[in-house]
Amino acid sequence: MTRDYLVFPRLFGARAAAIDVTVWHKHNPLLPVRLTDGANLNPSGQIWRRFHLGEWEYKQDPETLDDYEARQF
Question: For the chain, what are the domain ranges?
């Protein structure tokens, strides 16, 4: 019981302005995005993003042979 009221003041404490998430995670964009390496987007291949130094960065997995063959039919 004594620990419950100690958490309350921390709810309104100062927070970081921008959290730097350097872990890449899957992303499904609705609009085209600019990749970090400047390459064009492939019709297939998973897009990944991370929040780094105050902005989003995007990269894409290379297209595999199976992805290419599946796109042909």
Answer: 19-26+41-72
pLDDT digits (tens, 9 = 90+) for 15-42: 555 555 678 889 888 888 999 888 888 7
Q: Cβ(18)–Cβ(54) under 8 Å?
A: yes
Distant-in-sequence, close-in-space partners of 28: CB < 8 Å, separation ≥ 6:
47
Whether the model pTM is above 0.70: no
What is the residue-averaged pLDDT of the chain?
76
Q: Please state, in angstroms and rounded to a whole number, the distance separating the CA atoms of residues 56 and 47.
A: 12
Token reading at 9: 């003041």
Nearest one of 32, 39, 43 to 71, comparing CA atoms: 43
**Strand pairing partners for 1?**
none
